Amino acid sequence: MNKTEVMAISIEMARSGRGLNPADAIDYIAELIAREDPASELYDWRVEKLLATAACIWRLRREQIT
């Protein structure tokens, strides 16, 4: 799936109410991190990307509140 497809599907899901709320999204990211294999050579890279995504969600949520 390319970036354009990801954006189009994400927008449609959000419009139809099928997106996760921020707290659930961060919980899901935590689940994805827990499933990663620490022995994998890509573990650090994958976990860093997932944590960066969680940080983005947290920041956007904070901006909505304030």
Can you walk me through this structure?
The mean pLDDT is about 95. The protein contains 3 helices and no strands. The protein starts with a helix and ends with a helix. It has a domain of about 45 residues. Helix content is about 75%, strand content about 0%. With about 70 residues, the chain is mostly helical.
- How many whole angstroms does the radius of gyration measure? 14 Å
Please report which band the strand proportion falls in: under 5%, 5-15%, 15-25%, 25-35%, 35-45% or over 45%: under 5%
Provide the structure class: mainly alpha
Q: Quote the distance from N terminus to C terminus.
A: 35 Å
Helix content: over 70%
* Discrete helix count: 3
Mean pLDDT: 96
- Residue runs with pLDDT of under 50 for 5 or more positions: none
**Overall 3D form:** globular
Main pleated sheet: none
SSE order in H/E notation?
Answer: HHH
What's the β-strand tally? Answer: 0
